[in-house]
Predict the 3D structure of the following.
Amino acid sequence: MPAVGDRIVATIGALTPEWDGIGTFGGDQEVRVPGVWPGDVVECALLARSRQHGHWFGRALRLVSPGVPRKPAACPVQAACGGCPGLGIPYEAQVAWKREFLAARFPGATFRPAPEPLGWRNKVKWIVGTDLTGRPAVGFWRHGTHRFLPVPVCAQLSAPLVRLAAGLPGVLEGIPAYDEATGGGLLRAVLAKCVSSKEVLVTFVVAARPDPGIQARLAGALALEGVAGVTCNLHPGRGNRLTGDEEWTLAGADCLQETDHPRGFSVNASGFSQAHHAMAKAAAGAIVLALEPPDAARPVLELFCGSGPIALALASAGHAVTGVELDGRAVARARRAAPELAWHTADVNRLDALPVPAGPFHLVVNPPRAGLSGALVDWIGRQAIPRLVYMSCNPRTLVRDAELLAGYSFKLYNATGFDMFPHTPWFETVATFSRQE
């Protein structure tokens, strides 16, 4: 029988939805191995065995023979970071897997690859720590841990964010990094957002209110190339939440206008916005197309609208739109961009607080990975909604919700995947449902 610590050779036949390889060895033994691809034959070390399912967990030691040609590593810390498991795998193979994964769940679904699979990320959340020399550094948590990993260069970041990463250590010199274990230190994270004009916003997340001298030093980030605004976010508590509720401007702008859009919308560094501008724009265009032509008798209600990019695109196409979002700061940015539209700060799961249009209306939803709550699906089923457009970042919860919506006579009309996150297993899907009479 195999044992922990054994070295085995496995043939990888498939991937889990999270892109761990599913391999076989010893005739009937199964092992899950990160960082491999179907068709690979790989030497692994056995780490543990699942008590519930019986399969092994392994770590790849050596690629005996590749299932697909490998490309030179684009990142020296890929394995330690774990954020981009597809780096080194040909992009065409990644797209083929995602297309097949989506079509297996929604027959006939199509898939849109990213125009540039590297250098696409226009938003980043860096943890602050120190490098091997003791100097301040930005980076991420090591895969599966809360141990700091300096990442001076990331192949996924857009060029303005790469330049920002190079300049930040000079700004952070002498400011103590926050220590999760002891609660000591000050600077927790640096968040940055780049718009299509290449301007950048920076938010420093701190564990306590900095003294005026440190605030002035952080404000000095405005002098870095491309930086248009610097804010400070106060997060004094513990836990996995990255930001707090209080934020103020240190220098320059507190938000920027995204102008490469049917109608400009406001973004900042600490609020939600899509990290892949080109694919977010394509997905918004697909939603507009799904609701053509505009009909004055059928307004559009958008739930989970954020700062309003989809609602604003629909309004620009001629729709009467109402947007609902829990984050009051996001709603304030949406209202700043289009004060004449109807924006509501509300929890979409507080059904009595939802602004229901009079008569039939179309619905757009863009929920988090957990998808729609059962109560919200039931609310949708009780409304006069002829067409529903669902933007999802999780195919599995989309499948679940599509099955629930079918019980209320919603039939899937089409589904298109958008490769919002190249080199990862994740992507967005825009699914259009029509109500069957």
In short: The chain has nine helices and 22 strands. Residues 146 and 180 are 9 Å apart (CA to CA). The mean pLDDT is 94.
